Amino acid sequence: MKKTFARWAGMLLLALTLAPASASAAGYTQTKYPIVLVHGMLGWNSIGPYEYWFGIPGALRRDGAQVYVAQVSAANSTEVRGEQLLTYVKQVMAATGAKKVNLIGHSHGAPTARYVASVAPTLVASVTSVGGANKGVPTADIMRAAAAPGSYSETLLVSIVDGIAKTIAFLSGDRNAQMSAAALDSMTTLGAAKFNAAHPQGVPLTACGEGDYQVNGVYYFSWSGARSVTNLIDPVDGPLKLASLAFRGEKNDGLVGSCSSRLGRVIRDDYGMNHFDEINQVAGLVNLFETNPLTVYRQHANRLREMGL
Length: 309
Ligand code: CA
Hints:
It is a single chain. By secondary structure, this protein is of the alpha/beta class. It is built from ten helices and nine strands. The chain has helices spanning 2-24, 56-61, 78-96, 109-119, 138-146, 152-172, 180-187, 189-198, 237-244, 293-306; strands spanning 35-38, 46-47, 50-51, 67-69, 101-106, 124-130, 214-215, 218-225, 265-271. The longest helix has 23 residues, at 2-24. The protein is globular, with a radius of gyration of 20 Å. The relative contact order is 0.15. Bound molecules: calcium ion (CA). Calcium ion binds at residues 230-231, 234, 274, 276-277, 281-282, 285-286.
């Protein structure tokens, strides 16, 4: 009896010693290849100390990941942004000596990352889409319909969005060209469908299924939120609630539909997060009753690590 108890107590002690270690041990996020984060439309790397990926690089680096934050045009087509990202990936590889990178793209950053994996698969270990606009967004369709090419309303819309994009670019030190009309076209359902026909890797063939888990040696993953309002003191939740009306009841994160977000292996498409919670915005104001976004990123880095990526 005593012996059994001693063995049981010993095992319990061992479990208690190992449990915290497995969740946060040094090396938990230490992927084989560097992680490159790719921002969405009207995004940036950092404006002064303020990160687009709020606290995420630090959370990943804390247990060993090498993290690089790309800066591509705040507003431009997927292909133009993709070429910019390809150049950046080569710079990261030259700086680190790494043979490949793991790309994580948010919103328009997801198709941007997919472009690089499509044209240069040997440079990419994995692509992860977070709230990715892989099949377009309805707000872009509505805006495109209201601002037809060549119309006065298009000129007005483009000048406003170009102005915002140029301001963001100026503040973040981005010297890339800003082309809002091209960005908008890439984000429409039609624009996304054209892009997917040329770069189909990992895109689900059904409306809301999973895509191939691995294509040309590149692993594909995705996750997204499915709520617009998650934190009452976050100033962007109200506008997101309004934007979510465009989905007419379809599951969405305020800006991107859950089905559109799906790519490769779907980790989840229904976190209690909105489009900005997915990057821990605004300033960490997220859903207190959902897994913290920083934890989701850390878990994913560990997933990549366990897969040898
Ligand atoms: Ca938020």
